[in-house]
Fold each of these.
Amino acid sequence: MTLKIAIVGRPNVGKSTLFNRLAGKKLAIVDDQPGVTRDRRYATGRIGDIDLMLIDTAGFEYADDESLESRMRQQTEKALDEADVALFMVDARDGVLPLDKIFADLLRHRDVPVLLIANKAEGHGAQALAEEAYSLGFGEPLHLSAEHGEGMSDLYELIEKYRQLIEGDHVEGDDDSDDDETKPIRIAIIGRPNAGKSTLINKMLGEDRLLTGPEAGITRDSISVDWEYEGRQIRLVDTAGLRRKARVQEKLEKLSTADTIRAITFAEVVVLVMDHANAFETQDLQIADLVEREGRALIYVISKWDTVEEPQAKLKEIMDESDRILPQLKGTQIVALSGATGRGIERLMPTILKTYRNWSAKVKTRDLNDWLALAIQRHPPPAVDGKRIRPKYMAQTKGRPPTFVLFASRAYAMPAHYQRYLINSLRESFDMPGVPIRLTVKANSSVNPYDDSSGATGTSGPARARAKSKVKKPGEKPAHPNRVKQKPKGTVVAPKVKAKPRTEAAKLKTFKAKAAGPSTKPGAAGPGGRSGKPAGRGKR
């Protein structure tokens, strides 16, 4: 079944950008000027394995007359009548505007499911402002960046939920679909070429399902294989090897690389396969960092372990190296095995399931705040500009990956190293090793004008005092900038002292002095007004 989706919202929130991304082509014109799209535009699209019929609409304008804006609004309402699901987009950088609230009231009177999206949420400040969308009454907003493709995996999960609801094969439970064991766990097997990825999947399946060999680069497409492990549905995705970007020259390999990155985006657990001889090289670090930025659960697999002479010493060396060079993924589980002989492969799936549960974990708010009090007592927040930062309250907003929001005074001044301390303490206290954790710090009172989360600059300190403008009297003309300021009428002015005219005797005395020439007295000024003293004999 093809799901029909209408993308709606006020002007210039990124509807056409998301339309183009889901369609896979630049079909709609995109520009910073609001009001570019006016008619409904239809296109077929796809997200993951879901086929979509997309409807791009004009920006919602509140008008009821016969104007162009009113006719554009009617086109948007017709698109809502046809759609199975409405993607209601708001701008995370601007927050919730009055026009968003008016459109939200209109959507509440429509018989169509609404998925709230906070677009342009790629920055820290934008993510904090996106939380304002809670006030619209459509639940938690999905943080998305249609231009950069961030958050597309979360959008896929929500659209998949609505697809199942419409087709009738989804049953709502008390705790939603996060813990639905009938849904397959998507596991992507990634790594550099010839690291043993396909061999590992064949050994897990117990059959030669995938083509293997000593040649590097045999796998080109991302191949999905459905599998059942101890009653749990598993979807394994074999991917092409990822090399450094400078070495990727052929067009076919570029397409394979893009397909592998797409598999990481839509995966839930990522297994990074590395050869024990050259584990954690530059390309492995870049892949692991990409997985962490995408928010996926990660597991390290060290392959070809049957050829290692001292396994215990080598494993300890690899574990220390991983924690040192990837501190943001400290504690990630490591499984050493051999895909060819099957040695150690029985530990892989239990580790994957445990990591998946940690990645989906939800912590109670009371336990979080008890932990926060102990964490602050153990390591108090630093004082910035002479003022102490005071964390007040903490809550978890979502899982997969675990996302937390911390309310604190002077949130804009909390340094990054203290946030890292809180994240590492969270991992240790709630047993979430290696799981990527998102932490957002927000102000717990009115919006601070210098708060990064409110879109202002990061300047600290009081606001600069400005002189009050002078209130002009009615009919008073503004003063010219070059005009001399005159005193008001009625002001008593002291009389000017006039110099007395010189007498004839004084003039005669001056004339005789000039005619006599320079004085011969010691210290008298010479010709030109200079002293007669030798150079270098005066005061220094």
Amino acid sequence: MSIKSQADVDGLIAEYDEERPSRALSRRWEHGVRVAGLGIALLVLKQVFWPFREGGQYYLVIFLAVTLPLVFLCYRGRRGGREDPGPVDWALAGVAFLVGAYPLFGGFDAFLDRQGQLTALDVVAGTVLLLVVLEACRRTTGWVLPVVCLVFVAFAYYGGYLPPSWSISHAGVDFGQIINGFYNDATGFYGTPLDVAATYIVLFTIYGSVLNASGAGAFFVDISFSAFRKSRTAPGRTAATAGFLLGTVSGSGTATTVSLGAVTWPMLKKAGYPKESAGGLLAASGIGAILSPPTLGAAAFIIAEYLETSYLQVLIWAILPTLLYYLGIALAVEVDARRFGAAPVEIDAPSPWALLKRGGYHFLSLGVIVVFLALDIPVYSAVVYATGVAAVFALVARRGDVRGWARAMAESLSSGARSALPVVAVCAAAGVITSTITKTGLGQELASALVDVAGFVSSDPAVVLFVTVVLAAVAVSVLGLAVPVTASFIISWVVIGPALVELGVAREETAMFIFYYAVLSEVTPPTALAAVAAAAITGGDVLKTMWRTWKYTLPAFLVPLAFVLTDHGSALLLRSSLVDSLWVFAASAVGVAALAALTGGWLFGPARWPERVLCLLAAVALLHLQPVAVAVGLGLLAVAVAVHVLLPKVFSRGREQDA
């Protein structure tokens, strides 16, 4: 298909993103929602500099009470429903506000004092809030997560009916205490997930919206086109680079894929890329943006909160895996350009230096985030300052048109706040799961069951760890097929995380392992939303595009295994000495190169199955990250190269002798 307008791009994002499409409101309702979104944005900014004296939970109550109603006005109850909100939507919005703000009625302190002893009215209000949270989650992400939440509620209440011999059985929790855990405890609706959404995620969505309004998105695409000019590998390199840069504006893998495909697919097509391979490259480049500093996916903020560390530390952990991810894509691009016989494409663009002189300031706000974090300034303050820098440069780009700039900034603030609505609904619903697991101890029991399953295979600790990690990777990937990345990470952290920690894996490596597999679920067949969106752009076969995407992202699936399976895996997260990190990174890079040769079927020319098998064995040995294993891996790779170079000559001489 061809992308003819921004409306086409927006339509594809709405159709294939993991979040349900929002309403196309009429002008009157759009204006009202825009004002409400602006009010939410100002509330969030106010909390950064002038926080409520009553504390963080007080702010979260207000935040949920004002954002939840907006979900019912911006998202339809069913596909094909009316665009403007109807009576049911307004009724739900009103109820959501009333039960959301209920803890403030009669005094917030008095409500907290009733913890564990809620009144009948408290329980009714909490129950209604549970229902509207689940309905908001259904509208924004689909049925799966709300159903999972209801299963957890049923487990908490009916746990006493389970056979006593089952390890997960428990005495059952009174319904009032269940609601108390959701409504009054710090582990329910107002727990860490919502706290992260209200203090970090919404600020970054606002930042991305303001940065895009300053023209950064167009600049990032232009600089990517300009950097590689005319060569047969330029189209692929441009797509990968533009995907990485656009991710700083989008924050969504599928949205980045669609935006990227709209501008780079014509170039890839002209270069001779098959539809499926081009779609795979677009999807892999788009998803990579979520894995890359300085603006990782939403789950990265939750990692920082769960581990009680700084967001800068999480960014540091992501540096080497990001380099390895894009190294894999770069090598795949080099292979594809040769295997497909890609043609050079003349790119009509100014020189990179001319573009940098004209728009290089767009990188400054990203630098502000990193520098301020390094100065130990809280991340929520750093992103606000970066937003201010982007806003100032937006004024410069408009050549002093203050009125137009003010209108654009107001729209950006509102749009940023509205973009966070699905995440808010997911994070509030995730509180149902975390609270239930806390009250029943289910997480630890499921983690022990996972380890026990691995124990059936072998009693050797190394084998148990390996089997557990493989099962965990599969579980996170499968879970991510059904729920958004943020929810997938939260659920996996409380269920799977304890199993890995119990086996001696550090919490940091465990968190990053789960994070990577939660993100990579977006390119995992059979759903692979980013790949489906890419196929819609290129017109390629959907299933083939999924497998091409998997080929490009294979290093990203295997490298996280090194975090948790090897003694030197922590060095890949820069949690070791510089010397260790350097040799581990070098070994991993060679391993990624071996994987590229395996999946691309190319060394110095087309690779046959003996070389590819040797490359597979070399990659496995290299990613084991033990000195002896690395030496073996290098030897196997050398043998693969020797076979690749010498075997054709041997066959050629044999044919000459026969002749």
Amino acid sequence: MGSEWQLAEKPTIQALKGMGYTIVTKAEHEALRDGDNQVLFRPHLVDAIKRLNGLSDEDAQAAYVELVGKTDNEEWLHILRGNYSRKVQGQAEHKTIRVIDFLHLEKNHFAVTNQLYVKAEKSRIPDIVVYINGIPVVVIEAKSPINAKDKTGEAFEQIKQYERDIPRLFFANCFNILTDGTNCLYGTTGSPSRFYGSWGDPWPRPEGDFTNKLDKGLWCLLSPARLLDLIAHFIVFEKADVGKIKKMCRYQQFRAVNKIVERVVENTHRKGLVWHTQGSGKSLTMVFAALKLKTHLTEASPELANPNLMVLTDRIDLDDQISGTFQACGLPNPVRVEKVDELHKLIGSGIDGITALSTIFKFQGSKKPVAHSQNWIVMVDECHRTQEKDLGAYLRATLPDARFFGFTGTPIKKSDKNTYKNFGIVGEGYLDKYGIDDAVADGATVPIYYTGRKTDWHIDEAKIDILFDQWFADLPDDKLEELKKRGVSFADLVKHPKRVDLIAYDIWTHFREHAAPDGFKAQIVAIDREAVILYKRALDRVIAEDLISQGLSPEDAQKQATLKSACVYSKSQEDNKPSEDAHIVKLREGLETYFLDRDAETAVKQAFGKKGQNPDFLIVCDKLLTGFDAPIESVMYLDKPLKEHTLLQAIARTNRVADANKEYGLIVDYIGVSQNLDNALSSYRADDVQNAMQDLDNLRSQLHAAHATVLKMMKGLKRNTGDIKAEYDAFVEMLKAEDQWLTYRACAREFISLYAALSPDKSVLDYTKDLKWIASFLQYATQAIDKKEALDHREYSQKIRQMLEEHLDATGLSVTVKLRGITDPDFWQDFEMEDKPESDIKTAAIRKGTELRKTVYEKLDDNPHQYGKFSQRLKELLEKMDDAQFSWADKLRMAEDLARDLEAESKAHEDTAMSQAAYGIMKVLESYQPDDISAGDLVELAVFMEGIYAQTPPHWHEKTELRKTLRQQVRQKLHAMGFGSLKLVSEEVEEFALKAFAK
């Protein structure tokens, strides 16, 4: 057996055995399954159904048969949680049937098996599968090596391949695990690799209990009691624009929720304070808490019998966010309270089991206590703010005996005694803490950096009189006198027209160079509503002038410039008042013109969150500084003197994780906050906020260190010889010989990402030459060593990609690393070997291996039924590429044979009377073809189904009911032709149609 077995697969199985899992050997698979295409272990599941429900063997067997037909992952989660019923003998009503006993661990059968062969059109053998009562709930892929930052490896690809090729194994799947024997990463069914993560804290056990990361990770995720808890309470399906997204907790969410539940069950303290820093999933933590408090499948306690839950916020936008999350995640019957009288009617109804969502303002003036308030559990979001203006007092007067759990996205100030008093336990501080540094270290958020702009734009309040004389000297005498009489304010100086114009120009210039190339967006935070209008007008002028200089007509430039930004602020009754001051009139007109009502604001925020859609800027003063979640925002231009938690909440708008190009959020400071950062954050404990914002100088230091690390690994390599390909070949051999490729790749990527993060900062210029060499080498070496397309090249920022393209062209390497498809005429030139030197034949063979790998995977995605037979041939070719027994000429000939056969398959429809799409459908149908259907009937059926989808109107794939109707038509025809597995076949036909006909 290979290294994967010895280093990863075997230790994983042994660790699970040590936790009480039964090992099911490969020899037992046949007896436990109804066939190689089935994945449920029938004897285990039937026995569990009988044992847990007191059913006869006949009823248990019937339930098993019904469960075999369940194909929806969300439905299976409900089944696992006990939401499944059917008719049984001797009962008129449906009986709820449990497949897991969550309360009694010992009544379940936990098993693990390896090398489970699953037969399909493209049969697969996953490394390890974890079973509970005969149901496969976790798939484990063992590869070497993997890590949380490099998610382009084979382990991730393998899981995606299994999910595509043997979907039956994933119908009941809860999550997947990837391990190399050291690291242990997990992600939900269908989750993209970027959402896989490691389990950081093994609470309630200490780190010292574990001798290695593998044992820790497996215990955290798969120890029987924790696995049942995870399945029961910590997985949700959240509705989103792109459909439903399956989400699973991170360790801090699991820890916080269980601490809350423990506190409720123990009934010793009736409160607790939770700080989970912004962007780390605090809203979802509250969802998981509600789910466990309401369903408590693994807990039997009178304190959890039928509690009422109240989730409170102090802002309408936060109420929208929390309510949306609760409803999207399918929480049991959440009631959003819209009016004060609705709230009091609900909490005074005497009904138990309520889940209510409200703002705390609806308790204003309420002093009458509610009966049985001890049965209420209140979760308060941004709880420090709810202690202001007697809101907390009214809440407690109404629910005097309730349990109160406060949540906050920012740390609590040292001086804030009320929040600690009302939600905290003396001497405890936080019930659970997940701070800024924790989130950044885990990759849950990106770090926030700041940079101060020109200091002469910063305004020192102590020097207002001096600045007044400098900035307002050109005003007419009467205006100057008027201002002096009124008294010049700090805001007057901040909003000085010349200053606003200069900053607007700086914002556009900075944004165009730093954020725009990668599709990121920005907020501008102005000092007040008038300043919002001033910045909107100034920015429109600056952008329009820039667009005109690029050749646009003034009219088109102005239209485009106007769309680039939107203003978000609250309306005032002062906005439409008349005034004799022309300046005020103009500002008020602007406040009327640019105001967005609630629906328009929602639409703008949604558009802002999407790459490629206007606006690129949101100009705000108070709104959207809290509770606004837009991962696409990478920069905040700050021109408002924020303090304490308002500052922390505002800057956190930039810390959300987006795609691979977002390395950090940036605060560009025009007001001088960063000059006095220590003072601004001094009201907090130092260790809570020490890295709230980091100076860009830190990033420059990290770049210097990363560069040094990469160069150290290149010691002994001769560079600058004039033959860059020879340099690359020499370094490939060095890395392969010393088995250092994976380490070098990780270090090089770190260097490139830091360079990209800082670019176009002038500090990167010292590293540009090495960056070009190193980044281009990665692209070359990925083909030469891994026989794979350089995925990391696509993940580079646009700034880096453009630089590399120019470098590759200049060095002549662009032809060497360029990948072509088999439809490209130049693709076939590599197979011409006459008069070619050995080095060129080697390069051609390596490139062909990479190109064919890419082509086969793309074809498999298009239609696995048609191209599945090429998967094994590709694997054999890539293995032979590293086999010294074959010459490079032999390897190139083998690659040509595979390419010719691929091309022939792609043109196979030309020998029939069928279109390419109809032929593809026929290949899908062939996999399920009944014995008594002739080839001619199959062709006729495929052509009929092509007609169904080809004649649909545009955007049919976005219309749920239409898609359902089309599937029904397909199923009816399949049934008439004698096909079985109607649901499965119709879904596969639709999947093909989505690729062939969606438009």
Amino acid sequence: MAAVTSDWREHAPLRRARPPQVRGAVARPRLLALLRSARVVGVVAPAGYGKTTALAAHLPELGRACWLTLDADDADPQVFVAGLAVAVAGLPGGEAPGALLDAGASPRRVAARVADVLDAAGALLVLDEAQQLSGPLTGGVLHELLGGRVALLSRTPLTSPELTRLELTGDYVRVSAPDLAFTRDEFAELLAAHGVTAGDAEVRLAHAVTEGWPIAARFLAQAAAQGRVRLAALGNLDGGEPQLGTLFAYLAQEVLGPLDPGLRALLTRSSVFEELTPELLEGVLDEARAGTLLGALASGGTFLTRTGDTYRAHPLLRAHLRGLLAPGEGRGIAARGAAYFERTGRPRRALAAHLQAGNTGRAAELLAEYGGRWLDQGRVTLVERSLAPLPERDWTPALHALAGDALRLSSRYAEALEAYGRAGPLARALGEAQVALDTVQPDLAWEPLDTAEVLATGAQAARVQRMRAENYLNAGDPARALALHPDLALGARYALRSGRLQDALALSLDAARGEAGGARAAQNHREGLLLASFLHAVLGQPGEAARRAREGLAEGERLESRFVRSLALARLGHAEVTAGRGDEARAAYEASLALAQDVVPRLQVEPRLGLAYLDARAGLPGDAAGQEARALARAGGDRYVMGLTRLTAALGRLHGGDPAGALPGLRAAHEVFGTCGDAFGTAAAALALYAATGQEEDAPGAARALSAFPFLLARRSLLSPAPERAARAALLARLAAHTPDAAAGWLPVARALGYGRLPTPGEVPGVDVRVQVLGRVSVTRGGQAAREWGRARARDLLALLAVHEGGLAREAAQEALFPNADPQVGERNFRVTLHALGQVLEEGVTSGTFLERGDWLRLRPGPDLGIDLFGARAHLSAPPGTPGRAEALLALPAGLADSDLEAVRSEAQRYAALLPEALASEADHALHAARPDLAARLADRALTLDPAHEPAARALMRAHHARANPAAAARTYASLRAALAELGLTPLPETETLHRALAGQEW
């Protein structure tokens, strides 16, 4: 290959080495994570997908970067490397490629030096319009260049052996058009950045219109901000005169470009149809070469996308092209298409074509015939959009009933009831009853069910009977429900409401398997994922409860159902309560309540009962009573949910320290659940009643409850009588003492709480007692400071016992605390000190529970007594990579509390040496596990404790290198040298070798 001539700078104008200026960009963390995910990134998408904008807008977050926009001349390797030399000139060492060019070096050698410059500087090179490098001449140059960090932006797919190799090693990642497309949330942020206030429905419609196409989304945001478009008035692009067809004409012109006239004509005439096949175009447009022409359009990467044998154009492009058809031409093509679709048995496509052709009468007939089937398949939007263009003359009572069903399945209940009002008498009654069933408002269902029972015959009569049975179940009368329809016993909701929780969970999870993805209608309160979430919370499994709630929330967003989203957030609130995260629970409940407004009153019950619990626990009785009253007022006659509301609000009062205030609600809940036949609700209320009263007369009911549902004490459940482990342990001990005959089967509960046997009331304090000797000496009970120490030396004795994990002789402890005292005086002082320590540690429990006395003294850690130094030792001695060790080490205090005791000072020195060592070893493990960020945190913490710790410094240098930050690695080395110099030392040879290697020096 020829060498580059000395006038190489003429081939590389500076303007192409500057990134474009971007205005109005929004943060896109999802896309940024992809751009950071590999050393080499290929961003491949057609025109208008924002490749250049995405990279230019995120350059600050991508670190040090340089830019080069290519053109056709860069197919010449000499021109290409000249541009590279200009692009990297501003980097440290960036003059080297230019010097090589001046010396007449080959393009490959120049490209290799550019890669070296990028690597040394930790910089990213962005090559825009990289499709210009697809020729054979630049292959070797690109091979050398890809040794550095590079982003390749291209309109066409990039293929080369080097990219294939890098992809296999994980050094190359592809970012495609779907990755660049705006998500709905990102589109909402884009609109907000342009000052456009848009509701959820408007964002959904605007996103559907643009399908996230970045250039279209940005243009729409600008047009909305300027008042040229109203988002709420965006038309359906598949019918009528689309509002955006002309507004986006310039986009179509850019995309179409110099397209072959024959292909453009075919694309224009076929724009009538949403999906294209060769057979359709042959049968309707008489195009014999349809398959070949469609393939040619799809291969362009912009005009059509292909899925199997079907082709599809972007809705905006179709809208623009339909506007180019002559008057009447589009309707004629649509009419022929409708006949074709009816001949080939595709009623949905035939319906759409009839609507476009203006044959609304036939469209109404098809909709009446097939609409119910489509709703059963979850095609709610299809039915709604098909009904919208029908003129009033074509509407029949059956279509009004169909509209009511579609609106009901979209959770638009008020509109659904209005539509049912125009249907036939039976359809109206069935629709009104179904709305009441869907929203769990049994009081509203009885009257329309009575009407439907009179009018229905045959299969409809059987349907009415099942609906009546479900309404009995909703009302809290499962016995009458089963009498009418025994098969209800096989469902998850009956299992829940009768207290068979494990059966209910299995059934709800089985129902949930078919929910995620796919076309379906929202099932609202019947959603399996959300029922499973509630059951996990009740069973004391908050992690699973939160996971199911978030999965349900994602489904609600996919289904565009406010009902499902609101209920999912309420269930997420229950999960957060069960996990002990009150602030997160309140946020979820409030978000749920906000979504529930204007949907249906019943939807407000769960967030309000959750807020009633939180307010009561926080000591806000007035607020709690208000939330409880509003929840009960919206229960709609559902006795089960009324019992749940009373129980949850009462538990809030009980957990907040007001057992007397909790009693009325607990007794009411116990009565309601008993009437409903819910064994679990009855048991939860009985156990909470005993916790509130402590009376022996309430013990038998509580004992039966615990035997039936041991998890209520074994772990924290949404409906446990006490949230804290220690309080549940105290309740177990007291109940076992009151009912010794029943207690024999509770050993698994005791073990789950941390005990080897059933504890007695004198052995459990009811709160967690924690001893701290790291940083300072203290004792806390339930998170609060313990009582006054009485004697100052009691703190020293506690520290002394803490550093002697196995204990020490009484005489040795006395000598350590009172070394120069008269033996009798020392003995007396030590006895008083030991008593004072016992008073602090063992308040509320039998003497000797936590502090072993006698000739040998020892702290007795256990489920109720924790000692921070004991836990720290366990983390320090654990092998690197032990789950949880890294975060635990990062949280450990720097050292022990100051002390004048020799044993404590010796332990402090040992601890001060072990902690940096453990942090450094854990950092090494994190590096080997490809977690450089964690390694940097661990090593940095070790160097904070010991600036001269060389293993930690080496780990931090390697972590900075892995994160492409050589400057930080150099600073770490310099700081280490300075710290060692203060000690009269120099870095070890292995540290020097590492520094030279990372700095790119010869060694």
